[in-house]
Amino acid sequence: MNTESLPQSLRQTISGDLRPVRPLPPVWMRTLYAVAVAAGGLAIVVVAFKLSLRPDFEELPMWLSCGCTALQLIVGVVLVGMALREAVPGRGVPAGAVTLAVCTGVVMQILVGIATWMNSPGMPLIKGHGLRAGMTCSTHDLALALPALAFTLWLVFRALPLRPSIAGLLGGTGAAVTADAINHILCPMSDLRHVLIWHTGMIFGLMLVGWLAGKVWEKKRFGKS
Amino acid sequence: MGVDRKAEEERLIALMIGYQKGSMDDFEGLYAALKQPLLRYLWGFVRNATVAEDLLQDTFVQIHRARQTYTPPRPVRPWVYAITRHVALMHLRSGRRRKEMLAGDQLPEVPVPPEMEKFADKATLHRMLSELPHHSQEVLMLHHLLGMSFQEVGQILGIASGTAKVRSHRALKALREMLAEDQGGDE
Prior knowledge:
Chain A is built from seven helices and no strands. Chain A has helices spanning about 10-15, 25-50, 60-85, 95-120, 130-160, 165-185, 190-220. The two termini of chain A are about 40 Å apart. The interface of A and B includes residues 2, 3, 5, 89 and 160 of A.
C-alpha cells in the first residue's frame, strides 16, 4: 500500500541488503561484557607480569586500599556504560553528565593518590630511577587498560555513535580509571610526583586515545574531517 | 491525543521489529509513517525542499545501516530523529551547503507552534521563528509540532530533559517579546 511513496533508488538499496538483524543487547549487558573482558585481561596481565600487591598494602587503611579501589572500579564501569549508551542513536549523554563523569574519574584518581601519599610514603623515589619506575608503571597501566579499552571501543563503534569522539573519550577514561584502580593496589610507590606524572598522565593519554579513535572512526564512517 | 500517540508509537515499534526481522513491508510502513514529519524536521535545517528530500533518503539509508542499534521496545522516534539530525548536521558541515540556493517557490508549510498561532498571522510568526537561534527552533519543532516529550527531545539532542524544557520556555518567551515589539511598532 505504501509502495508508490518509496523512491526506487531507496527501495533497491534496502531490498539489496534486507537480512534479519539482531538488536544490540541493552547497555547494562554490553557493559557486563566489557567488565568480563577487562577482568580476563587483568588476570592475564597479573600472571604475565608476575604482579603482586604493594608491600605496604596491609598498612594502608581499608577504606584507602580496597575502598578506593572499589570506588574507582565503579566509576570506571559507569564511564564505560556511558560510552556504550552514547553509542546508540537517541540515547546521547548530556554534555554536563559527560563532563561530570570524566572529571570525577580524573579527580578521584588524583585524590586517591594524595590520600595514599599522606597515609603511607611507600617505596622511596630513588634519584635517577624515576624514569625507569615510571615506565614500568606505565607499561602495567597500559597492559591493564588496553583489553578493556579495545573491547569497549569495538562495542562502541559496532553501534552507531553520532558523537564518536565523546563516546571514545568516555570509553578511554573508563578503561584508564579501571586500570588505575587495580594499579593503585599494585604500584609500590606513593610519591606524588610519580603518581601525578605517570599514573595521572596515563589516564590523560588513554582519554586522548579514545577521543582520537572516535575522530578516526567518524572520518572513516561519515567522511567528516 | 495521548492515546493516539501511544498507539502510533506502538505501531512504529511493531514496524521496526518487523523491519529488523527482514520485512520490506514493514520498512515501507515505517517510511510512510515517518516521511512527512522527517521532511519537516529536515527542512528546518536546510530550508530547501529538494535538499530535504535528498537528505530524507540519506537518513533512511543510515537508518537501514544502523537498524540493529534500535532496541525494542524503546520508543522509535528519538532513535530515528537522532539519526536524522546527524544526517542534517553532517550535510550542513559539508561543502555542499554553499551551492544550494533557497528558492521561494519551494518553501513547504513552515511549522508554527499552535499556542502561538492566536497571537499573530502565520507570515509574521514564520519570520520571527526564523530569527530564533537554530537550537530554539529545533526544540519548538520537536516538542510543540512533532509532539515529543521533553525527555524524547533531550534524547534526540543529547541534552538533559530539563535543558530542553528551559530552551523551549525561552524560545516561546523570545517569540512573545518579538511579537510585543512588532505590535508596538505597528501602533
